[in-house]
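Lecture notes, continued. The same structure-token format from the folding unit now serves as the input rather than the output. Read the line below as a description of shape only.
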């Protein structure tokens, strides 16, 4: 490229680096600033082939851009990292009939600043203890951080093939979609929802959705999710505790007010039965049975009202269950119910035997009463693992509707015509005081299964064959 003396003088005053090439890729001009930045002596390289002077550029994007500019006679503009000097350049190449004029400048500081910001945000994203993810406008995952992978059990590759919908609990779908669409419209959303972990269990989440805005246009949604499952469990336990406290206070008042007059009524009824011959004995028997029932209810109320001042002792669990089965055998026979026991050799457990007996009485009676036309009650007791024993009571009764299962154990909630709901609530309280847990499952018209998990005391692993405790 031939440059006049006047043009040469003007170009030498330009502060940006400039060089020129002919159609054979030979350098025809190289100003002082270009020589300084690229660390070349321009007298040595003028007339030389640019690919020979800078051989590393053949493998860089610059090579393709320059050829494109000359072949299509169109200006090109691009950014490029130049490894030999560890610099970033912004390059503009303008073609002409004589060759190519190239203007470039060092943008390393600006690029480093951008990279630092990107790394800052990347670090905030990657190392955030909360689950962070981005979604497109259709709710498909674009990116997730490691905390999100750990939270849901899926890796990033798996999540980026789906939207958030497949992992949502179905009943949360409509509400969560509503919050997502509000975020798409530009409104930050805070809400709670539930999802399925890859392993199958449910997770309670507190979620924030934030619109992603680029150039004043919403292009997606950021999500920040926090696992609040433990918090939810704590809140539920606190609620149950408060409920039990309220019931206990009510129970104590009722039991106290009923017991004294009940004693008097029972005494006078016995006196009437022994002295008054004109009264029908069946009436008196009904009255006596009903008074006994009231006494039983007040006893259950007192269990709920205050802790029992009883000491835990080592007991044979199999003996407790066998005693209860024998006690209820006549009731089972009357109701055409067969009680089947399958009890393994078990370690003794530290417990309050009379309370556990009350639990098993309540559960087995419930099972017998649930089978109006007869059937089988199966009682199984075995080691669940090295630290727990599981006792299972299975009946073939009418079952409990799914929508009512969550209410089981609520005071005064019962499916029985004459029930109070206190029996099962008392049983739950007793098992809880023994550091155990109760799981109830049921299928309508097929039956109910109750699993009781009780801890094995660490100090005693002796089985009933080794230790005889009466």
């Amino acid at each position: 490229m031939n440059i006049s003396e006047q043009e040469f003088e003007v170009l030498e005053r330009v502060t940006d680096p400039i060089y020129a090439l002919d159609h054979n890729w030979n350098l025809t001009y190289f100003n002082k600033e270009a020589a300084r930045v690229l660390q070349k002596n321009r007298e040595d390289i003028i007339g030389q082939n640019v690919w020979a002077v800078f051989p590393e550029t053949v493998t860089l994007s610059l090579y393709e851009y320059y050829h494109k500019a000359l072949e299509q006679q169109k200006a090109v503009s691009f950014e490029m990292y130049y490894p030999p000097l560890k610099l970033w350049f912004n390059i503009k190449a303008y073609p002409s009939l004589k060759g190519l004029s190239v203007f470039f400048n060092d943008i390393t500081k600006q690029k480093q600043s951008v990279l630092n910001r990107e790394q800052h945000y990347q670090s905030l994203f990657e190392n955030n203890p909360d689950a962070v993810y981005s979604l497109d406008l259709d709710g498909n995952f674009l990116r997730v951080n490691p905390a999100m992978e750990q939270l849901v059990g899926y890796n990033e590759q798996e999540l980026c093939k789906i939207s958030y919908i497949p992992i949502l609990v179905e009943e949360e779908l409509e509400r969560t979609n509503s919050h997502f669409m509000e975020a798409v419209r530009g409104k930050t959303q805070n809400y709670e929802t539930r999802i399925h972990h890859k392993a199958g269990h449910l997770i309670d989440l507190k979620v924030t959705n934030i619109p992603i805005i680029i150039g004043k246009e919403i292009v997606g949604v950021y999500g920040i999710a926090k696992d609040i499952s433990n918090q939810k469990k704590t809140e539920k336990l606190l609620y149950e505790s408060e409920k039990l406290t309220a019931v206990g206070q009510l129970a104590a008042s009722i039991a106290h007010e009923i017991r004294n007059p009940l004693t008097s009524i029972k005494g006078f009824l016995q006196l009437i039965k022994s002295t008054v011959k004109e009264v029908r004995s069946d009436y008196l028997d009904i009255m006596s049975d009903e008074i006994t029932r009231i006494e039983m209810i007040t006893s259950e109320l007192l269990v709920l009202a205050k802790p029992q001042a009883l000491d835990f002792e080592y007991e044979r669990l199999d003996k407790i269950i066998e005693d209860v089965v024998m006690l209820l055998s006549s009731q089972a026979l009357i109701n055409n119910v067969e009680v089947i026991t399958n009890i393994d050799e078990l370690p003794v457990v530290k417990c309050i035997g009379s309370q556990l007996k009350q639990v098993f009485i309540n559960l087995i009676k419930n099972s017998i009463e649930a089978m109006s036309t007869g059937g089988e009650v199966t009682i199984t007791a075995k080691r669940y693992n090295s630290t727990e024993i599981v006792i299972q009571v299975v009946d073939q009764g009418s079952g409990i509707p799914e929508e009512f299962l969550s209410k089981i154990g609520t005071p005064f909630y019962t499916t029985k015509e004459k029930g109070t709901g206190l029996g099962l609530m008392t049983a739950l309280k007793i098992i809880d005081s023994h550091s155990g847990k109760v799981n109830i499952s049921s299928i309508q018209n097929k039956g109910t299964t109750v699993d009781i998990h009780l801890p094995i005391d660490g100090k005693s692993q002796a089985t009933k064959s080794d230790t005889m405790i009466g």
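Point for the exam: The mean pLDDT is 82.
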